[in-house]
Amino acid sequence: MVLTGPTRAVFLESTTPVTIEVDIRVKGTDHSEDEQLSSLADPLVPHDTGYSRMWNSDYTSKLSTVQMIL
User: Fold this and answer.
1) Could you say which of 6, 38, 53, 56 would form a disulfide bridge with 24 (CB–CB 3.0 to 4.6 Å)?
2) What's the predicted TM-score (pTM) here?
3) Of the ranges 24-28, 33-37, 61-65, which one carries the lowest mean pLDDT score?
4) Contact 25/59 with Cβ under 8 angstroms?
């Protein structure tokens, strides 16, 4: 499954970490029937560079593996 949103800018400054959070659910008919597909929170620590670059990493939680590309 490829998810493309919501999208928000990530500003990486010096060595200050940014926490990336993922919470993916399938909606049920009511909140108690929602099924969680993935849930994780992980810090992203930038490299000390002034240049833009592609960042690609896989994260595995108890429920799934999420590939994040920034």
Assistant:
1) 38
2) 0.56
3) 61-65
4) no
